[in-house]
Amino acid sequence: MDQMEVDQPQPHHQSEKQIFHRCVTDKTRDFRAKSYGTLIQPYEFSCSQNGVLGEKHGFIHYSNKAIAFAGNPEEGFHSTEVQKLAATFLVENELPFNQLDSIGLNPEIDIGIVKTHGVAYNREIARTVTAYAHIPQSVDSWLNSLSIQGSVDVPTILKDSIRDLYDLLERLWDKNMTVDDVHLSGTYGLNGDMMQIKPSHVRVRNLGDARRPSQGLADMIFHNILNRWTNDVELSHFHQFLLNTNICKEDVLNHPFLGGSGAREGMYKELFRRNFTQRQKDWLQNNINTQGWQVRVDPADPNTDFGFREIMIFQKINKWAQAFEPNTWGALHFAKIAVSHYHEHDPVGRPQLDAKLKDLLPGLLVGVYGATFNPDFVKGPG
């Protein structure tokens, strides 16, 4: 919304005098004589009568000094150092307070939920208004800004946000809560580079809520991220992995797509040590395409990475040229040796190793990791 629209309130907004008049004439005034009181926090946002519902941007007025009522209603109230706090307002049709879901309105329920400032019924527009932390940029806009940077792969900053979002969905699920419209980008707000869930979408789970957080995240990725990074092999695999009903929270968080370079390097070694059966090796060969990987590490090719060339030369000098099988299992073996080689002999080049292996063997790590959760791969005769 244009900033000028926010700074120039429409006629339906109440002035301080009107607010004060209601306080001194309504039953609210009786509260002063009791042991409890009324918290008044003026707010403003631009809202045309034709587009009254939905999200609006505006301000909450506050002061670090006490607000004192004037003796004359015409004078409104006295306050010093009044400031404006940018906020987002969700305007909905009139909703009785006893029907409001207190879960989403509790700012302490989880750090992953957009902080709620308060909820009120606005008589001027006859609508229920919920105020929460200002959201300066939409998730769609943020994703577009990341995708136009031209990277084939999902940037690390987005992977970290996806990881945090999934962790949040699981925490809410464990607290017997769920999120409506999890697939829509409008369900989320941005806090820096962290996607948070807007409070109006959080509610207590019921018996009909069967979709697990991993499936909800898959829906979100399908509708908002896959179409922006269409050539990221690992993203596509991760999306399919989330639909597997045999996985748990730790399986998702340990997926190579979400892992840092150190964790991914260790995974090459850990997966190779599993000593798969011949049938499983054949399954990998038939389902993960690593064709021609040996050609790309040919020591005679001047374009071959120096570290990879050293590994192949060492192999031939020591007469174990057939150690790397010409298949997917052989590619995993090579990756495992490469990790050990860089750790021992090339610590300077090690920070680039994960990217080099991903470029040399696209889809290998996520493919083998995913296979270990596939019933067709796990079961069957050796």
UniProtKB/TrEMBL annotation:
Superkingdom, taxonomy of origin: Eukaryota
Protein name per the record: Uncharacterized protein
Species annotation: Triticum aestivum
